[in-house]
Amino acid sequence: MLMKEYRICMPLSVEEYRIGQLYMISKHSHEQSERGEGVEVVQNEPYQDPEHGQGQFTEKRIYLNNKLPSWARAVVPRIFYVTEKAWNYYPYTITEYTCSFLPKFSIHIETKYEDNKGTNDHIFGGEPREEETEVCVVDIAYDELPERHYKESEDLRYFKSKKTERGLLPEGWMDTQDPIMCSYKLVSVKFEVWGLQTRVEQFVHKVIRDVLLLGHRQAFAWIDEWIDMTMEEVREYERATQEATNEKIGSFPPAISITETPLPINSRNGPSSAPSTPLSTEAPDFLSVPKDRPRKKSAPETLTLPDPGRRDSLFKLPSFFSWNSSPQPE
């Protein structure tokens, strides 16, 4: 398992970001979805936790098949998706990603929000860990974004909000900005396959960092669209957008109901604190050596990923992981 802590500062208050986050996730998911690909919302309902109190539980399916390179499509099912489950007890959220096709793969994200510049070194407690956790500071204005995600209207070096008059963000803006908040995200990536673990976990963290950068940039770049919304209005926007997104990708589940009436305690299988994702002890078939084939003693039972130097060999995850943990834009 590879664990990293990400700190993403925003020129917002924690209370403002509560609305902006919900708006950004819904709009971003809708923009990134197309026929047969994208984010399907399976459940979105209140949840009562004995430790954290009232929150919101969401379950989503992120369909990826057309996002995979040809070498991956050859071994995965025709319909391939990642399951996202999120428990939002804002300003504390938990998000986990699993894939039934890869039972030894999971992502776990704990998120806390505070009104500061990312200076709290003990926000996730002072418990000693097996090794020092790498802290990655993400600058939403000046960190490099993959070219395919770049939009001039979302370049925060040149963006200025008409309604709040916040921006432009100069170099070193985090030292002088007021208001300012920070999203602290403790991200654990687990891929327990010998010979592939380190390479895959490092790659997934790179993808997650890009996703976090894009989502938080968009939340501020779209501020004039959501800054005047109430919680009731953003929940209605969320409901309408989720139904439109489900229809857009070609899924027609039962109508989504978003209500403020809390469910009974423990009425959903959710964690009272950070969950531990159960993993199967059996590897998927394509990672196993067929029983009817003699094993060569000199050949290790490992897989080799395609050469990352080849453009067509990169495994590209989509940019619509949620940050209501976030990702998504946990």
Automatic annotation (TrEMBL):
Which SUPFAM superfamilies does the entry mention? Bet v1-like
Q: Spell out the Pfam families in the cross-references.
A: IP_trans
Q: Where along the chain is composition biased (Polar residues)?
A: 260-280
Which stretches does the entry tag as region Disordered?
260-312
What function does the entry list?
Catalyzes the transfer of phosphatidylinositol (PI) and phosphatidic acid (PA) between membranes. Binds PA derived from the phospholipase D signaling pathway and among the cellular PA species, preferably binds to the C16:0/16:1 and C16:1/18:1 PA species.
Keywords assigned: Lipid transport, Lipid-binding, Transport
The protein's name is Cytoplasmic phosphatidylinositol transfer protein 1
Q: Which reactions is this enzyme annotated as catalysing?
A: a 1,2-diacyl-sn-glycero-3-phospho-(1D-myo-inositol)(in) = a 1,2-diacyl-sn-glycero-3-phospho-(1D-myo-inositol)(out); a 1,2-diacyl-sn-glycero-3-phosphate(in) = a 1,2-diacyl-sn-glycero-3-phosphate(out)
UniProt xrefs under Gene3D superfamilies: 3.30.530.20
- Which family does the record claim for this protein? Belongs to the PtdIns transfer protein family. PI transfer class IIB subfamily.
Its cellular-component GO annotations read: cytoplasm; nucleus
Q: Which InterPro entries match?
A: PI_transfer (IPR001666), PI_transfer_N (IPR055261), START-like_dom_sf (IPR023393)
Please indicate which superkingdom the organism of origin belongs to.
Answer: Eukaryota
Q: Where is the Phosphatidylinositol transfer protein N-terminal domain?
A: 1-243
Q: Which organism is it from?
A: Knipowitschia caucasica (Caucasian dwarf goby)
Task: Please name the GO terms that the record assigns under molecular function.
Answer: phosphatidylinositol binding; phosphatidylinositol transfer activity
Q: Does the keyword Transport apply?
A: yes
